[in-house]
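Anyone else keep sequences and structure tokens together like this?

Example one:
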Amino acid sequence: MSVGGIVLALVIGLVAGLIARAVIPGKQDLGLVATIVLGLIGSVVGNLLAGLLLRGELEFDLGGWWASILGAILVLGVYVAVAGRGRRSVTR
């Protein structure tokens, strides 16, 4: 992968992560690096699922912005659901 490809992947990850954080309600304690990682993981998940649903093949394609954003929303939703369980305190 070229330097331009790496930069493009980071930009896609950042944009997808920021959009996902804006869509999912609640406070997410994520910094800039965690937002980029969230977006990159979401991009991979979203594009793999889009390839499976649309073409019937489980192949990776980094070109779909909409799939990257939807994947990041899905990944952040799962993260909030899982991390939210551990952060609740029991008060009596």
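And example two:
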Amino acid sequence: MKERDKLIKKLNEAFANCDVEFLAKSVTDDIVWKIIGEKDISGKKEFEKSLDRMKHGGPTEIKVKDIINAGEKSVVEGIVEFYVEPGKKKKYAFCDVYIFSEKDDSKFRELRTYVTQLKKKA
């Protein structure tokens, strides 16, 4: 398995476990997280605040289906489950585009998240 693939899997595990510390160490100070159709989160402090909010009702499981690496970009496709209310989960398909720093390829400077709720079993 390529190093970038290992890092992408660790990042997704960190999102699933709301591991704010690991994720904060994995971004540049000028990180931009674009949740397409929803909002943009700019800067490391805002990124960390968003991650802290995810601890309350965030993802319960993330299954990575595919990873594609090209230069400074990595694209991840998968399924994520969230608790929408106590005892009730919903599944979403997602595609994340990570754009890594040119200076430090262990940190990403931009994340574009595309997500849609699944109506049928995936």
